[in-house]
Amino acid sequence: MISRYALPEMLDLWSDRSRYATWARVEVLAAEAQAHLGRVPEDAVADIRRAPAPAPARVAEIERERDHEVLSFLAAYCEDIPDDSARWVHLGMTSYDLVDTALGHTLSRAADLVVDAARRLRGVLVDRAFEHWNTVCVGRTHGIHAEPTTFGHKLAGFAFAIDRSLRRLAAARDAVAVGTISGSVGTYALIDPHVERYVCGALGLGVEQAPSQVVARDRHAQLVQALAALGACVEQIALELRLLQRTEVGEVEERRTVAYQGSSAMPHKRNPTTSERLCGLSRLLRGHATTMLEDVALWHERDLAHSSVERVVLPDSLMVAHYQAAMAADLVATLTVYPERMSAALDRTRGSIYSSAVLADLLENGTEREKAYRAVQAAASADDFAAALDDQGVAAGPLRPDRYLGNHDVILYRLESLRDLED
């Protein structure tokens, strides 16, 4: 992923420097566990522990000759370890014992960053939903004016969607936070299971229950699917805000600085570019979710077809989801809301948005459904809905938004449960 759509803490987590530092940590922990078993001398463990993680440039230099990243890492790492101690590095392990265990640790940390950003987004949505609970606006179905609702109600729906996304992310984070140090085909032939338990425990990971040579890839697919679902929920927020920012609607507006310039040719433009960016990035996440499903089925105990895919998809997906959630929280927190424009939109249909209440009154008073429907429909087509009803002798109740919001606070009470999560 290009750095334009990645925040520094996530970008650093996926750097070569961080990856090799995590690999070195796994090797140190494995050596410590082997020492517990009496297989590696304590002084060798001390030498291994003191060695720094190799520089990415040095690993790349060796890899140009060996065409194997793990072996190149080990060669570079062992350059700073005395020969008598270096021979104990990676004892009994295969390459993906190192790679997948380190990856599980990185994925859990990266998922935690996404969860933190999504929690902030949920909190911002809840706060602004309470702020605008009574800001009445028109609800739209099929893009057409329907009945009155409130802007707070819209935001509450988004808040619950992000809450569901957080629950999916939590499950996916737990599923992917595993490692394995079990040998070439996962049988622990040359390594005691104690090493796996010790290393994974120190890294806060579970263990793959029935390893092959790798951690099962349905775990990784589950994570990227959860990220894609979060992205789709962010897109729903951004899409709504884009639609409400259109010139002919103008009910909300993204925050703009005095230095903002929306067009190289048209100085008047104030475009919803943040919302548009968030919508675009969600498309990447959906594509990546499909791609990760292709990585689940590997030949026998493993093949390498998944590796090149994961080097792109996993960091990209986590960077995009993290960026999306963080930027969406900023967008909602600083959004300008125009209640007067929302109020004006209620009157744009000259009262016909209250047609369902009039229809309900007629039905309750005994009017046959087809007759009632056609009478109200005809009045709704007139320039003045209330006057047209009078002309037909239809007695309408109060044509006001509060007619529709009498039971509305039941949703507000449900929203309290999300506010409690933030305390």
Question: What would you say this structure looks like, in words?
Answer:
By secondary structure, the chain is mainly α. It has 3 domains: 1-91, Orthogonal Bundle (Fumarase C, Chain B, domain 1), CATH 1.10.275; 95-254 and 266-348 and 405-423, Fumarase C, Chain A, domain 2, CATH 1.20.200; 352-398, no CATH class. Helices cover 62% and strands 5% of the residues. The protein is built from 17 helices and 6 strands. It has helices spanning 8-13, 16-36, 42-50, 56-66, 69-78, 83-86, 95-131, 151-176, 193-202, 218-244, 273-293, 305-333, 339-346, 355-364, 369-380, 385-391, 409-422, and strands at 136-141, 144-150, 178-179, 206-207, 252-253, 336-337. The strands form 3 sheets. The chain has a two-stranded antiparallel sheet. Helix 9 links the parallel strand 3 and strand 4. Helix 7 runs antiparallel to helix 8 (151-176) and helix 10 (218-244) packs antiparallel against helix 11.
Q: What's the topology here?
A:
Layout: H1 8-13, H2 16-36, H3 42-50, H4 56-66, H5 69-78, H6 83-86, H7 95-131, E1 136-141, E2 144-150, H8 151-176, E3 178-179, H9 193-202, E4 206-207, H10 218-244, E5 252-253, H11 273-293, H12 305-333, E6 336-337, H13 339-346, H14 355-364, H15 369-380, H16 385-391, H17 409-422
Helix pairs in contact: 2-3, 2-7, 2-9, 4-5, 7-8, 7-12, 7-17, 8-10, 8-17, 10-11, 10-12, 11-12, 14-15, 15-16
